[in-house]
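Hello,

Our lab assistant flagged a job as stuck in the queue for most of the afternoon. It eventually completed. Since we weren't sure the result was trustworthy after the delay, we are filing this so someone can double-check. Below is the sequence as submitted and the structure that was eventually returned. Let us know if re-running is recommended.
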Amino acid sequence: MNQPRVFRIESKSFSVRTDNLSQGGAILITEKSRGKSFQISLEVDCVVWLRNQLRDAFKGSEAQFFRQFKGVSFQFWVERHRNSKGWFLRLSKCTRGVVRSLVIPQGENAIGWRTMEDSLGTFYNFNGKRCGSDTGRDADGGER
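-- returned structure --
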């Protein structure tokens, strides 16, 4: 089993690790901030897609976006927004009507998004399998 990747972005702490208890495996992202904890599990097929969205976010323009990935039994989406403290990404997953979200600040020189993308990359060959293909779609239905 891989060791969890733990890192800080501004006032938040994140952990990325594998979950071998889930059928087929999953990657768990945990955000801890101000005594609260938020967690999202990503099925393997979604990881490559999310890494591409993170790359687009730190390379991209100064614009908000909404992109979604539809899995067999879940829907996952990424939103890029700005507030008084700067840019952030909200990652959300809906499974059986329950939505779970966490927020990743951009950080200085997009270090927050780069570190998350790098951490997800350490799990690319999850359980000896190649992660899924980039099968997500934009909110407008276009291919990503």
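-- support follow-up --
The delay was a queue issue, not a problem with the job. The result is valid. Residues 126-144 have pLDDT under 50 and may be disordered. The CA atoms of residues 3 and 106 lie 24 Å apart.
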